[in-house]
Write a structure and sequence with these properties.
By secondary structure, the chain is α/β, with parallel strands linked by helices. The chain contains 7 helices and 11 strands.
Length: 261
């Protein structure tokens, strides 16, 4: 069962908010402030399904992103506010922005000017890592957080619902290898039902496949987490922290560095 759920970020720069994963985080939304644009249509997305449409505001130009971010950082610094991280997130996939590489350069420069100790993080669904300019931009940030929700094709397609038929688990894992030692691989663990089909990426088969995929990719670390907010698909259940801890412990024994939430 699905429910109406709409975008939750109504500006280009939002926050700061306290992230359970990243600390005091100032958000950068490169997608429209009144709609959603994404190359996935994840059943757990806090911003809702793509069917809500892209809105009318449009994707903010690079110049606007830079101007609004600088104004916010300047005001925060003058107020003495703390900042741990500048995080690209928002109403869809940030790497779909046509000037993504340039935006990254701007943000890194502004970070160095106003909060040199803060990190720059990008939360990406990994669909655009095959574009050389996007890949190179991702390699510049402090926390290049890339998604892999399942290493089994039908499960990935059920959970993430990629727009492209050419996007496959096999191709994704090969593409992620270019970030060996540099990327954080993020996996949402969940179970439930969607469109009459059972969803569970925590079975022994799923965990074994993920473990082998992580070994092949060789990331800096793996980030395991579960549901924390409302989801458009109502029939999903949170995987409790103690279960995630046990999964992480098993992966650690295989030489995979894990964080979990």
């Amino acid at each position: 069962m699905s429910k109406d759920q709409t975008v939750i970020f109504h500006s280009t720069i939002f926050g700061p908010i306290h992230s359970r994963r990243l600390g005091v985080s100032l958000g950068v939304n490169l997608m429209p402030a009144d709609g959603k644009v994404c190359s996935f249509d994840c059943i757990y997305c806090e911003a809702g399904y793509n069917s809500q449409g892209a809105g009318k505001a449009g994707i903010p130009p690079r110049s606007v992103v830079r101007k609004e971010l600088e104004e916010k950082l300047d005001a925060m610094r003058k107020a003495g506010d703390p900042l741990d991280v500048i995080t690209f997130s928002g109403n869809g996939e940030p790497t779909l922005h046509p000037e993504f590489a340039g935006v990254i350069d701007d943000v890194m420069s502004l970070r160095d000017k106003y909060y040199p100790e803060a990190k720059v993080s990008v939360l990406s669904n990994s669909t655009r890592i095959f574009d050389p300019s996007v890949a190179e931009a991702l390699k510049k940030v402090d926390n290049n957080i890339l998604k892999l929700d399942s290493a089994i094709e039908p499960t990935m397609r059920l959970i993430d619902v990629p727009a492209s038929k050419d996007f496959t688990v096999e191709r994704l894992i090969e593409g992620l290898k270019q970030f060996a030692g540099q990327a954080v691989i993020q996996t949402m663990l969940l179970r439930g039902e969607h469109n009459g089909k059972m969803v569970d990426n925590t079975t022994p088969e799923e965990i074994a496949a993920l473990t082998e995929a992580y070994k092949a990719i060789a990331p800096k670390e793996v980030m395991l987490y579960s549901l924390d907010r409302s989801t458009p698909e109502e029939n999903l259940r949170k995987v409790e922290r103690d279960e995630i801890a046990a999964i992480a412990a098993g992966m650690e024994k295989e030489g995979i560095r894990c964080m979990y939430y």
